[in-house]
């Protein structure tokens, strides 16, 4: 089964929506769902547009962790019982 390729603009819009949703959550369930959505669209950006400047912005580190690593670390911490709310 072939994967559907999304346009770069569509993926970037979805990432922006997920970021906005992540900043406006008010309980644990919405928080983890927003993180999972953000990870899904980051994975799609990684799969289809590895050579784009946006890929570099989300997946490389300047100092500390990249955005993708922060999302993965937050999901992992949530699995181990760390609740933000």
Task: Describe the protein.
The chain is mainly α. The chain contains four helices and no strands. The protein has helices at residues 8-23, 28-48, 53-59, 67-79. Helix 1 (8-23) packs antiparallel against helix 2 (28-48).
Structural class: mainly alpha
Poorly predicted runs are none
Name the shape in a single word.
globular
Number of helices: 4
**Residues in helix, %:** 55-70%
Q: Could you tell me the strand content as a percent range?
A: under 5%
Output the radius of gyration: 14 Å
The largest sheet, given as strand count, sense and whether it forms a barrel, is: none
Reading the helices and strands in chain order gives HHHH
- Tell me how many strands there are: 0
Task: Report mean pLDDT, rounded to a whole number.
Answer: 92
Distance between the termini: 40 Å
Write the layout of secondary structure elements.
Elements: H1 8-23, H2 28-48, H3 53-59, H4 67-79
Question: How would you briefly describe this protein structure?
Answer:
By secondary structure, the protein is an all-alpha fold. The protein contains four helices and no strands.
């Amino acid at each position: 089964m072939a994967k559907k390729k999304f346009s770069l603009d569509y993926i970037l819009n979805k990432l922006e929506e997920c970021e906005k949703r992540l900043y406006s959550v008010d309980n644990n369930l919405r928080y983890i769902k927003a993180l999972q959505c953000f990870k899904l669209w980051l994975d799609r950006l990684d799969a289809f547009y590895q050579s784009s400047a946006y890929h570099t912005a989300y997946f490389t580190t300047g100092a500390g962790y990249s955005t993708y690593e922060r999302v993965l670390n937050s999901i992992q911490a949530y699995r181990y019982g760390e609740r933000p709310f």
